[in-house]
Amino acid sequence: MSIEVVEVRPHERHFGVYALKFEDGSERLATRNLTPGKRVYGERLVKWGGAEYREWNPYRSKLAAAIANGIKFVPIQEGTHILYLGAASGTTPSHMSDIVGERGLIYSVEFSPRVFREFMEKLVDQGRRNVVPILGDARFPYQYAHYVKGVDVAYIDVAQPAQAKILADNADYFLKPGGYVMLVIKAMSIDVTAPATETFKQEINTLKERGFEILETVHLEPYDTAHAMVVARKR
Ligand SMILES: C[S@@+](CC[C@H](N)C(=O)[O-])C[C@H]1O[C@@H](n2cnc3c(N)ncnc32)[C@H](O)[C@@H]1O
């Protein structure tokens, strides 16, 4: 039998993020479900105060891991337009879709046709109208330049080498002046022989060289080994 939720309250720092409190005193992150009754990855749904919330699992979503680890600033709120590179089957994009609401947009780029089909089934076919699915390769932003309008945030989680470069190339095309980038660094996919901190430094240097001011870096352990999240702003 699952334990009961005894309180749902807004997160003290992040817009559109909630804390679910359980009867045993434990707490979990959640977002308010934009498509009530529908799940994306088997997450728990909680009805509270006339709304429905989706539990946000930090072991499944690196943005949730960064929030659970105390990231201070997430540049996402109601109405934010986001370019999401490496959308996979939509776990993190679905929570962003909850947060930005009907006035926001998540341009979601994924290059694997099989995974993209899952994304379509789980998000688009389920009625998330603020998601724009793009089957494309993030290394070649010109391929989808005609679909994407200026964005407030560019987010990357492609688990491939040269992520900072790919992110900066996309920012050159699509990021509005003063916009933000969020970079998930997976040390192993960049250089398996280098220690994680070395790899993190290299990727951060690439962002600095491309004109970004680094605002924050958060490690994602214990949720993800050798991963970090970097938030930066275009100077
Ligand atoms: C770690 S998963 C992303 C998980 C997702 N961000 C989430 O939190 O829900 C990485 C995804 O990036 C995709 N990917 C890798 N290289 C890519 C590229 N160059 N362009 C687009 N997608 C890419 C992979 O197919 C995979 O689905």
- Corresponding CATH superfamily of the largest domain: Vaccinia Virus protein VP39
Poorly predicted runs:
none
User: Between the first and last Cα atoms, what is the distance in angstroms?
Assistant: 52 Å
Q: What is the number of strand segments?
A: 12
Helical proportion, percent range: 25-40%
Fraction of residues in β-strands: 25-35%
Give a quick account of the main beta sheet: strands, pairing sense, barrel closure.
7 strands, mixed
Assembly type of the chains comes to single chain
Strand line-up of the largest beta sheet: 8-7-6-9-10-12-11
**Outline:** globular
Organism: Pyrobaculum neutrophilum (strain DSM 2338 / JCM 9278 / NBRC 100436 / V24Sta) (Thermoproteus neutrophilus)
GO molecular function, one term: RNA binding
Keywords: Methyltransferase, RNA-binding, rRNA processing, Transferase, tRNA processing
Protein name: Fibrillarin-like rRNA/tRNA 2'-O-methyltransferase
Describe the protein's architecture and organization.
The longest helix has 14 residues. The chain is globular and about 50 Å long. Strand 9, helix 4 and strand 10 form a beta-alpha-beta unit. It folds into 2 domains: 52 residues, Phosphorylase Kinase, domain 1, CATH 3.30.200; 173 residues, Rossmann fold (3-Layer(aba) Sandwich), CATH 3.40.50. With 235 residues, it is an alpha/beta fold. The chain contains 6 helices and 12 strands. 45% of the residues are buried. A 7-stranded mixed sheet has the order 8-7-6-9-10-12-11, with helices on both faces. The protein has a 5-stranded antiparallel sheet with strand order 1-2-3-5-4. Helix content is 25%, strand content 33%. Bound molecules: S-adenosylmethionine. The site of S-adenosylmethionine has 19 residues, from helix 2 and strand 7.
